[in-house]
Amino acid sequence: MNYYNYFTEIEEHFVRRRGKHLYVSPLDWSLIATWRDSGVPLHVALRGIDRAMDGFFAKQPLKASKVSSLFYCHASVMEEYARHLEAHVGEALQEESGNEAPASDGQTTEPAGPGKEEILRFFEARILEIKALGAKQYVSEEVREGIERILTRLDEILGDLAPDRQIDFEALDRDLAILDETLVGILRTAVAPEVTESWEKEARKDLKIYKKKLPPETYAKILDTYMRTRIHRHFAVGELSLFHM
Fold first, then answer.
1. Coil, helix or strand for 10?
2. Are 112 and 106 within 8 A, CB to CB?
3. Which of 122, 128, 154, 183 is deepest in the core (most CB within 10 A)?
4. What is the tally of helices (H) and strands (E) in the chain?
5. How confident is the model at residue 36 (pLDDT cuts 50, 70, 90)?
């Protein structure tokens, strides 16, 4: 992935999580360059941004203020990168010794969650579905370029699923959630406005009796989830989430 794509992926995700458009400053650009030059993989940088923004909004539930600079996310990005490097160091040591990590009490402890083969099959199925989207004649060049970006990032995430590597399920699902949000945003542009309007009208009708009983943020989240589901079904693409395996 070239530098320009690395920058734009980070900028778009930061702006989307911030909730309001903000021109990224030259200093922010320099920070992104520093991450890139330090070897921070794109999906690790996005994961760090996501953690930082989750923490910010947890402290600011009313969203009265906004994060004004990408520097707010720097510490979280570096923490995620440190975890990424630690995982790779552990693998390198095992390869050098030629031994597997010893299990406590002579027993092998299986990590909680789906098996690696199951996860790889899940990735294979989603990649085939997304590639099929790019081959559709009605898909615009802009959407096709977005799909290629999604596939590139999926390949990068797959690179972290080496056969001898224990999976960090929390980190993996966060990576997939970020990617699914991007995919839905791309596909939404390929749906006619009158179609999305009809979906939203249908959802609001079904939720009408609950609206007064739900906090505004909960109502908005349910509505957003409904729209995301309709987009996935419309394009016959499964959601990028371990919870939907």
1. helix
2. no
3. 183
4. 9, 0
5. confident
Burial of 32 (0-12, 13-18, 19+ CB in 10 A): buried
Listed in sequence order, the residues at least 6 apart from 144 whose beta carbon sits closer than 8 Å to its beta carbon are 134
Distance, in Å, from the CA atom of 193 to the CA atom of 150, rounded to the nearest integer, reads 23
Q: For 184-229, what is each residue's pLDDT tens digit?
A: 999 999 999 999 999 999 888 888 877 887 778 778 888 888 898 8
Total length of the chain: 245
Q: Tell me the CA distances in angstroms from 222 to 172, 179, 192, 204, one per residue in order.
A: 24, 20, 22, 10
One-letter amino acid at 179 equals L
Contact 178, 239 (CB under 8 A): no
How far is the C-alpha of 204 from the C-alpha of 208, rounded, in Å? 6
d(CA 168, CA 87): 9
How does DSSP classify residue 242? G
Residue whose pair of structure tokens reads 């941004």 in the numeric block: 49
If DSSP states are collapsed to H, E and C, what string results for 60-110?
CCCCCCCCCCHHHHHHHHHHHHHHHHHHHHHHHHHHHHCCCCCCHHHCCCC
- Give the model's pLDDT for residue 51: 94
Would the pTM of this model clear 0.70, i.e. be above it? no
The radius of gyration of the chain from alpha carbons, rounded to an integer in Å, stands at 20
